[in-house]
Every structure is written in C-alpha cells, then in structure tokens.
TrEMBL record:
Transmembrane segments: none annotated. It comes from Phytohabitans flavus. The lineage of its organism: Bacteria, Bacillati, Actinomycetota, Actinomycetes, Micromonosporales. Gene3D superfamilies: DNA-3-methyladenine glycosylase AlkA, N-terminal domain, Hypothetical protein, domain 2. GO terms for biological process: base-excision repair. Residues 134-279 form the HhH-GPD domain. This is DNA-3-methyladenine glycosylase 2 family protein. One of its GO terms (molecular function) is catalytic activity. Signal peptide: none annotated.
Length: 304
C-alpha cells in the first residue's frame, strides 16, 4: 500500500468528479464511492491494483493510495498513476472552453453549478471500446450490464477491506476469446462479430497516437475500422480518449440540450462549433453531465 499526490490542472474539484462518477451510468458498478472517496481496480498484466482516490489536502489534485498483492515497481506505480489521471481527466486544460463559456450568458448558471468539473471517462481504452461496440443496436442498460459480465469473467480482481474489486480486462484478453464466448457475452452473433471487429481493430492501433495524434487523422483511422461508425468514433475520441475537438451535435440529445440552454430556436451545430472551436467536446460534456446540478429556480433544465 502506498500514498501519492496527483496534481490536476486548475480549476479542479474532486467533489465534482465524484458527482459525475455517481451519474456515469455506462460505468455503474465499476467503482465504489464511500465517504467522499472512490475505489477502482485497474489491470496490471494479470493482476489488479486498487486505486483509492480522495481529495488532496492542499493544492489542486487528488490523494492516491494503491492497494496490491505485492510491492509495485516504480514503472508499475507510474503506469497506474497515468491510468488514474486519464480516468479522472486530471491533466485536462479547460481554459479555452471556460473562456468562451464565461462569455456565453446562457452557460453562466451551469458553469457555477459545475465549477471545477473535469471529464471523468472510461478507465481504459479497452473498457470504452467494448462498451461502444456493445451499445450499437442496443440500450445503455444492456450494454453496461454486458460489459460488467465481461469484466467479472475475464478481469483480474483484488479484495480490499472485504470488498472484491474487478478491473476491466485488456483488449488482448477480450480479443482472445472464442466466438462462442463472445456470443455469450454480447447476446447474439451479430453483436459478437461487431465486438470482435472493434476490439481487434482498436487493439491494432497505437494508444498513445490515438491520444495525441492529429485529431482528424485519428478520427479517420477510427472510421476506417470495421464496426466503427461516426457515433462510435466520436464516442471513443471524447468519452474514452478525452479529446474535445469534436462532438456529434446533430444528435437529438445535444439538440435538446442546446434548446433548453439557449431557448428555441437554439444555435445550430455549426454555430456552436464556430463559437467553441476545438473545445466543443467540453461544451457537450458539461451540458450533458451537469444538466441536473443547477438550482431549480435557475430557469434551466438541461435535457437528459
């Protein structure tokens, strides 16, 4: 067991992270929130490491305690640190978004309600790729339940204080499953085939390049994978990789959210893209995540 401090780009509020995690339905059951802290398992090869995360006593960041069955090597600790930072969006720089949103009167109440919110996302590329493969022609509830079954069957686990924490398995582990097992996990043959296509396609790409390469090049590469359409590509880029350069604003949930923020008629997707530029994904995340956080008398009720 070891303790560390992970810094976060300001403004950052761990309370906002916990609130976002509590409402993150696709990952329900994948973490445990208790007494202002959260515990989550991360894979380290065939083993699991449990991260216990709480607010830092001083400065902007989080206090992190790692639980493992053995002494971790410095490189292993660093790998888990990176995974936690990605998961909680600690390094995200929202300054460009906050600058534009701060001059957008319709966003004022939401910004106050969500001050310090950073994007919480899927804990790994594997978890996100599996979920967005499973949700195609399905529902959020079923996709999340099937994802949990995959984790329970294939992921490494570790018990801490009598609670079993399961880490989501790697892309390689999921891809190694036979067709019969994938059908069992996915629910039918078509969805299992799509799951294999997405998992194998994403596994063949360099994750660091996906996170840092030119946005349009990464998006085109993802769109070239079997089983990956525009929705899945955008979802992987924003909700898994934390890349805010784009968002599918033409989808009904974003159109409804824009209408409730700005009134009817709302700004068009093109107008929002022009206003927020490469931080449009943070606009989309804020209006979707903090939709119920505003005071009841604010006059706004962001659509679900």
């Amino acid at each position: 067991m070891s303790g560390d401090i992970l810094a976060a780009t300001e403004p950052f509020s761990f309370d906002m992270s916990l609130r976002a995690l509590a409402g993150f339905a696709p990952c329900a059951g994948g973490h445990v929130i208790t007494d202002g802290r959260v515990r989550k398992a991360f894979p380290l090869g065939p083993e699991a490491v449990v991260a216990d995360v709480g607010p830092a006593r001083e400065g902007s960041g989080v206090a992190l305690t790692l639980h493992a069955d053995r002494q971790l090597l410095p490189t292993e600790r660093a790998a888990v640190h990176r995974a936690v930072a990605h998961w909680l969006g600690l390094d995200d720089d929202l300054s460009a978004f906050l600058d534009v949103a701060g001059r957008d009167p319709a966003m004022a109440t939401l910004l106050r309600a969500a001050h310090g919110l950073h994007q919480v996302r899927f804990s790994s590329l594997a978890e996100g790729a599996v979920y967005f493969a499973l949700i195609q022609r399905s529902t959020q509830w079923y996709a999340a339940a099937r994802k949990r079954r995959i984790a329970a069957a294939l992921g490494p686990s570790l018990s801490v204080d009598g609670v079993e924490h399961v880490a989501f398995p790697s892309l390689a582990v999921v891809a190694a499953q036979g067709d019969a097992d994938l059908i069992r996990f996915a629910g039918n043959r078509l969805r299992a085939r799509r799951l294999r296509e997405v998992v194998e396609g994403v596994a063949a790409l360099d994750e660091e390049w996906l996170r840092t390469g030119p946005y349009e090049e990464v998006r085109k590469r993802l769109l070239g994978l079997p089983g990956v359409g525009p929705f899945t590509a955008h979802a992987l880029l924003l909700r898994v990789l934390g890349r805010p350069d784009g968002a599918p604003l033409g989808m009904a949930q974003f159109e409804d959210a824009a209408r409730e923020v700005y009134g009817d008629p709302p700004p068009s997707p093109a107008e929002l893209h022009e206003a927020y530029g490469s931080s449009i994904g943070w606009w989309a995340y804020y209006v979707r995540t903090a939709r119920s956080w505003q005071p009841e008398d604010s006059g706004l009720s962001i659509a679900a």
